[in-house]
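go over this chain:
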Amino acid sequence: KSLIAAFNEGTILASCANFAKRLGDMPGNLMTPTILADTAIAAAKGTALKVTAWDKKRIEKEKMGGLLGVAQGSAQEPRFIVMEYFGAAKTKKPIAFVGKGLTFDTGGISIKPSAKMEEMKYDMCGGAAVIGTMLAISQLKLKVNVVAYVPATENMPGSRATKPGDVHTARNGKTFEINNTDAEGRLILSDALCYASEQEPQFIVDTATLTGAIVVALGNVHTGYFTRNSALKTKIEKAGTASGEVIWNMPLTDAHVKDMKGTYADLSNTSSAAGAGSATAAAFLEQFVAEGIPWAHFDIAGTAWACGNRLNYCSSKGATGVMVRTFVELAKQYV
């Protein structure tokens, strides 16, 4: 019985990780925010997972200024994907996952170099990981309550695009000046973290292809994660050991928060100091998590794709489905 159960679990995990890979590998014109949302809704059919997607009007109503600010340069409408799974009593607080769903990132007005820009279809691999995780949790029928949120948009240099120096307001009222439009992931995540906090979960974990700095630090071997909560850190380390995905705890201090203070707004989306780009990005995100809620941020910019030389179960250049298995193991600890 135990062998059959393990085989079934392995099959589900592989299937859901492969689903996340497929989402990542799809070209930007075939994986727009709308297609991503529709694909997640279709995949959830027949499971206990409820998936809905907010359109632009609803996102405006919800005052998600970070997501709307990034989206305004694209002809493609943004989506805010909401996923809910209740495997335990409704009275039990849920755990929350948040994933960056940037379906294509040109960098906006602060446009990226042309070399390897085609790889920016992978900028939604955090969202893909969260969607894969939720599908796996529902198929495994874990006795836990889980909610997940994926802000999805393109980052394009259209005529209405955010300009360097513009100021936007996040859902919680905090303002940020946009000093580099290519530092957009943290902006769309800010609103999602605010909304996740409002659900009063046991903890929040977010994942994103957020910074080139994490690639400089850790290459394509380790996924860097940031948290100030020691109990959550212990659970994350246990989950990583169980899944076999290699993770590494990175520093996050008040000094990094100070580096993200704005001149003309509460915050800047770029650091005032040199170096530690991943830590300062994490410090920015931390400002949108409600006080008292344990939170961790996973930067998968180095491990979301092109890891075939490290991982024998991945194609050499494609998406990896990273973090699906680790997040499932983390959820198991709350059953």
Residues 2-25 form the longest helix (24 residues).
